[in-house]
């Protein structure tokens, strides 16, 4: 089954990639991401998955 492309999810991942490019998420950064995810109507399960994948990506 192929999932459809969701620009809001892609945007959220790109924002997280930029914010966490140092491999760390400060509390203030996490607050901003939570606000973004709520505004984009991204559910908690998907938000957590995005964070997990992007943190692995940015470990370097």
Polypeptide structure, described:
This protein is mainly α and 60 residues long. It has one domain. It is built from three helices and no strands. The protein has helices spanning 7-19, 27-39, 44-57. Helix 1 (7-19) runs antiparallel to helix 2 (27-39) and helix 1 (7-19) packs across helix 3. The longest helix is centred in the C-terminal third of the chain and has 14 residues, at 44-57. The model has no long low-confidence stretch (mean pLDDT 87).
Structure summary:
By secondary structure, the protein is mainly α.
Uncertain spans, ≥5 residues at pLDDT below 50? none
Summing up helix and strand content along with how strands pair, one would put the structural category as: mainly alpha
Indicate the percent of residues in helices. 55-70%
| Apparent shape | globular
Mean pLDDT: 87
Structural domain tally? 1
Instruction: Using the CA coordinates, give the radius of gyration.
Output: 11 Å
H/E order of the elements?
HHH
Q: What distance lies between the first and last C-alpha atoms, to the nearest angstrom?
A: 32 Å
**Number of alpha- plus pi-helical segments:** 3
Strand content: under 5%
Number of strands: 0
Biggest sheet details: none
Oligomer: single chain
């Amino acid at each position: 089954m192929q999932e459809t492309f969701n620009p809001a999810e892609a945007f959220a991942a790109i924002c997280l990639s930029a914010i966490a490019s140092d491999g760390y998420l400060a509390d203030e950064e996490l607050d901003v991401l939570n606000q973004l995810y709520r505004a984009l109507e991204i559910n908690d399960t998907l938000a957590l998955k995005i964070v997990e994948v992007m943190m692995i990506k940015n470990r370097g």
